[in-house]
Design goal:
Blueprint (H helix, E strand, L loop, with lengths): L1 H14 L14 H27 L9 H18 L4 H6 L7 H19 L2 H30 L19 H27 L5 H22 L2 H21 L5 H23 L4 H5 L1 H7 L9 H14 L12 H7 L18 H29 L5 H20 L4 H15 L17 H41 L6 H9 L3 H20 L5 H21 L4 H13 L3 H14 L4 H13 L3 H14 L4 H13 L3 H8 L3 H4 L2 H9 L3 H14 L4 H13 L3 H14 L4 H12 L1
Helix pairs in contact: 1-2, 1-5, 2-5, 2-18, 3-5, 3-15, 5-17, 6-7, 6-8, 7-8, 7-9, 7-16, 7-17, 9-10, 9-16, 13-15, 15-16, 15-17, 18-19, 18-20, 19-20, 20-21, 20-22, 22-23, 22-24, 23-24, 24-25, 25-26, 26-27, 29-30, 30-31, 31-32, 32-33
């Protein structure tokens, strides 16, 4: 039993580094959920095996170290913060898009406990950790090759841009994954150097391999174009070089001076770059171009410009233990800044790990999290590693820290961070207090009591935490595949919701609303099916409201769905509640104003859109919506006074359609004529002009417009002749 349980635990631990390669295309959010389930199942198997092993042999029981205490306290504080937060269930279970929450923190803690207990400490532990880290490096090399294939155009970039993402599916996730491995490879470069000094076999070859791999990973980081991670890489390298130059007293002076020279060179290159950042060569380069425009007011940084102050303000409302994980959306909705109209409308992260933890677990939680960095450094600098090795590991932590200032964590970085915490914990030799005692349990007690209980618990966890949730995930995919066909059935969604997994329910309901809207609008799907979808959708809107009564998202999505199918009276209450929860979000104002217009409440619509316009006067959609509502309400003179005949407001196809709906066809035709003058080569606009002329009874003018199109586009002659015959009927 001892051999079997140890084998299972060790095998599971060494399979963990493979998770970045997992892309479950049959899952919803394939780049996220597949990796998360793979990681969780392995850790659950390892943890169950380790419990039995720890009963059998005290050698495998956890040791009382500062890092073990720190990580355990962090996990415990996160749990308390989640339970006392705004939405404890969401904090515990998260959702398919993130797959985080406390359930992930628990698995990371279990990963650390099992790995440090099984691998041990001292030279033996260091040896096993080196094998584990080399396994991770091998996987990272495969991921890097995938990135190179994307770079050369041999593989698709999943984000639809030039920013490499490989099997991580996100360039920022790819960047931080490579960041860890660039420094880990550099660490092994110096390990190999030490072995080479001792004339150990193949050490020189290993040193070259690790050096080349480290450079490759650094190159991939640059090609992800993730600026925060690139800054972290550069900052980490500079810190590592500085530490080596300052504290490497036993090292050759030549190398210490070379390190100082590299720092100076990096600074000099940075200065040269900054003063030449407007050079066309730099601006045309995808990576350098992103850096050349970097500033706090840069449009790509505006989200952080607005979100960070919003998050800090929200954190001060619950300063001690925060809002709980996965609850940033409550702060975002309530404090939404109207100037964010061009940004994502449903932010669920502050895009800063430290602010995220301040929001999630308050001052207590963020201190516990920062303590992990401090304990990491203490473990490294108290170890017997060489100055070069210590410097590289410190550079790794610094690079990760800088990255976390600009991006949020994910499993790819979390697992490596906790893995590195486990590794540095093993560096300290000497005796430690064994938790849970030092005497082995009786073998028969383990065989007949402990092992059966653990196995039953493992089966329970695997089924309820993994298998059941995976079933909900894949069932959702099946429901969505049927959605766009005549075989669309609400029973598929009912089956998926019947699993009743909290992590899945909100996503299922949101996808149901999207599907139901398409089904009800379809001309080929029978009425009873439409009615069944409508009934299920309205029930699930109320079910989600019961689950998250203070979250604006379900009110907005539910109200928009009902608006889309013409159920304006039902939609109004939902949208008004949503507006109370996020009063400054213009996208919601547009939806609610549309509802008011459809229920004859024109004055309410005008007042609402006036607020939306005045909150962000530069927002084109807000200007257009306000002007249109004024005109529909019979207040065109007021609209003309406010917007001074702005062509971007009045000379648009949307405005032409508004005039047409009011039967003011001459104004609609005039708008299209102006649009044609501005863009005479646009066939679509000219065709719309002909259509509007025909609608206005201007048949001869419509025919002439079509003839003009035929002259410039003779290839359309047959279609135009057919259209003219239709007009002449």
């Amino acid at each position: 039993m001892k051999k079997i349980t140890k084998y299972i635990a060790v095998a599971a631990l060494f399979l963990v580094p493979i998770f970045p390669l997992i892309v479950a295309n049959s899952f919803f959010f394939p780049f996220i959920t597949g990796k998360a389930f793979y990681f969780r199942i392995l850790i659950e198997l390892a943890f169950a095996s380790w419990i039995i092993l720890a009963f059998l042999d005290a050698k495998f029981r956890p040791k009382l170290t500062a890092l073990t205490v720190g990580i355990s306290l962090f996990a415990l504080i996160a749990l308390v913060a989640d339970l006392l937060g705004v939405n404890p269930l969401r904090s515990l279970w998260s959702n398919f898009e993130r797959m985080e929450g406390w359930i992930t923190i628990l698995h990371l803690w279990a990963f650390y406990i099992v790995a440090t207990s099984i691998f041990g400490s001292g030279e033996e532990g260091k040896h096993l950790w080196h094998r584990w880290l080399n396994t991770s490096l091998a996987v990272a090399f495969i991921v890097a090759l995938y990135g190179l294939f994307q770079l050369f155009g041999w593989a698709q970039v999943h984000q639809g841009s030039t920013r490499l993402d490989a099997s991580l599916g996100n360039s920022a996730y790819m960047a931080v994954y490579m960041l860890f491995h660039a420094f880990i490879a550099a660490y092994f470069f110096f390990v190999a150097r030490m072995k080479r000094a001792k004339n150990m076999a193949n050490a020189a070859v290993h040193q070259w391999v690790y050096g080349i791999v480290s450079v490759l990973f650094a190159f991939i980081i640059f090609e992800t174009q993730t600026r925060g991670t690139i800054l972290g890489l550069i900052g980490g390298i500079m810190l590592a070089l500085a530490l080596y130059a300052i504290f490497g007293k036993g090292e050759p002076k030549k190398w210490r001076w070379i390190s100082a020279g590299f720092i100076g060179s990096i600074i000099l290159l940075g200065i040269i770059f900054w003063f030449n950042r407007t050079n066309p060569i730099i601006e045309r380069n995808p990576v350098l171009g992103r850096f050349s425009h970097i500033s706090w007011t840069d449009s790509s940084n505006q989200a952080r410009q607005y979100i960070w102050p919003m998050a800090l303000k929200g954190a001060m409302e619950r300063p001690v233990l925060g809002w709980g994980q996965e609850n940033f959306n409550y702060i975002f909705n309530a404090g939404y800044n109207p100037a964010m109209y061009a940004q994502e409308q449903w932010f669920d992260r502050a895009h800063n790990v430290f602010i995220d933890w301040l929001v999630a677990s308050g001052i207590v939680g963020v201190i516990a999290y920062l303590a992990l960095y401090v304990l990491f450094l203490i473990a490294v600098w108290k170890s017997s590693l060489t100055v070069a090795e210590k410097s590289v590991l410190t550079g790794l932590l610094a690079g990760y820290f800088v990255h976390n200032v600009f991006v949020f964590d994910n499993l790819a970085s979390y697992a490596l961070f906790f893995g590195m915490l486990g590794f540095v914990n093993s560096l300290k030799e000497g005796k430690h207090i064994r938790l849970l005692g030092t005497e082995p349990a009786r073998v028969d007690g383990v065989e007949y009591v402990v092992a059966p209980v653990v196995i039953v618990a493992l089966v329970f966890v695997l089924y309820f935490f993994d298998v059941r949730v995976i079933r909900a995930n894949t069932s959702l995919i099946a429901a969505l595949r049927a959605c766009g066909s005549p075989q669309a059935s609400p029973s598929l969604f009912e089956k998926t919701l019947g699993v009743d997994a909290y992590v899945a329910n909100q996503e299922i309901r949101e996808q149901l609303l999207s599907c139901a809207g398409n089904v009800i609008a379809s001309q080929t799907i029978p009425g009873p099916t439409k009615q069944a979808f409508f009934g299920l959708a309205t029930r699930e809107i109320q079910a989600q409201i019961a689950a998250t009564p203070n979250d604006a998202r379900i009110y907005v999505l539910g109200g928009s769905f009902l608006n889309g199918i013409g159920q304006y009276e039902q939609a109004e209450g939902l949208l008004e509640t949503g507006h109370q929860l996020t009063p400054k979000k213009q996208s919601l104002d547009f939806e609610l104003a549309n509802d008011y217009l459809n229920t004859g409440k024109k004055e309410k619509a005008v007042e609402l859109l006036k607020q939306a316009y005045e909150s962000a006067p530069d927002f084109p959609q807000a200007k257009s919506a306000y002007a249109i509502t004024l005109i529909v309400s019979g207040r065109e003179a007021e609209a003309r006074t406010i917007f001074k005949n702005d062509p971007e407001v009045f000379n648009t196809a949307q405005m032409a359609q508004v005039y047409a709906s009011l039967k003011q066809y001459s104004k609609a035709v005039a708008i299209y004529e102006e649009m044609v003058k501005k863009d005479p080569a646009n066939i679509e606009i000219r065709a719309q002009l002909a259509q509007m002329q025909y609608t206005a009874g201007m048949v001869s003018q419509a025919i002439q417009t079509l003839r003009d199109i035929e002259k410039t586009n003779p290839e359309l002659k047959d279609k135009i002749e057919a259209a003219i015959k239709q007009v002449q009927k």
